[in-house]
Amino acid sequence: MATKEFKKAARIILVGAPGVGKGTQAERLMKRYPQLSTISSGDLLRGSVINKTPLGLEAEAFIRAGNLVPDEMILKLILNELKSKRWISSQSSVTGASPAQPSQNPSASFILDGFPRTATQASRLDSLIPVNLVVSLITPVNIILSRIASRWVHAPSGRVYNTDFNAPKVTGKDDVTGEVLTKRVDDDEETWKLRLKKFDETSQPLLEHYDRKGALWTVKGNSSDEITPKLFQELESRFA
User: Fold this and answer.
1) Closest among 93, 159, 148 to 124, alpha carbons compared
2) 62-92 pLDDT per residue, tens
3) Distance, CA of 131 to CA of 112 (rounded, Å)
4) CA 72 to CA 83: how far, in whole Å?
5) H helix or E strand, kind and range, residue 213
6) Nearest Cα residue to 196 out of 7, 16, 47, 1
7) Residues 139, 221: Cα–Cα separation, whole Å
8) Whether pTM exceeds 0.90
9) Spatial distance between the Cα atoms of 209 and 64, rounded to a whole number of angstroms
10) CB of 35 within 8 A of CB of 109?
C-alpha cells in the first residue's frame, strides 16, 4: 500500500456499530498515513492502573468498587497523553475556560479510540481539544449479523477467523497451533441484535452533536474493502 502525507493535523474519531470494522479501518489508515497514530482511552486507563500513577490509583478505586471511571478522569488521561507528545500546550487543563490550542503539525494527527461515546462526553472533549473529522461507518445490519455468524476464534491467542473472507487454512483449526477454534459465548444473533439496537440509541445524539459542529462525515459500504477507498479519498481531500 502506497503511503501519503498529511499537510495539516487530523484529529479523527471513528463511530460505528459493533462488527462494522472500526479496528480494520484504523489499521489501514495508520498504514496509509504514517503521521497518524491512535490514542486509546482504554489503553491509557489500563496503563495508568498497571503503572500505579496518581490517576491510575484513583481509577482503580472506582473499578474495584464496581463503578464506571468518571469522564473527568478519562479526559485527564487523554490530556496528559497529548501534553506528553507536545501536541497541546503544557498549560492546558480539563477545567480550562477555553479549548486547548492543538498543534497543526501533521505529525500531531491521531485517531481517538474509545472516547467519546455520548454527546455529553463529546461536549466535554470539545472544551479540551477540537476534533476535526468524525467518521460514521455504516454497514447494513444483515451484513454485520452474517459476519458474526461466520466468525470463529482461537481463544488462547485471540486470533479471529471468518469463514467468508479470512478462513483458517484447515477448517475449524487455528493456523498457528492447530488447536480447535470456537465461537464466542456472546456471538449469537439475538445478543447481537440487542447490541446493535443499543448502539443506535446511544450513538444518534453523539452523531447529531458532531453534525452540528460540521465535523461529521458518513460512509456506507457492505465490506471494509468497499469503505476503505472512500475513506482514503475523504482524508486526502481534507488533510493532504
Assistant:
1) 93
2) 999 988 899 999 999 998 999 899 888 777 7
3) 9
4) 16
5) none
6) 16
7) 5
8) no
9) 33
10) yes
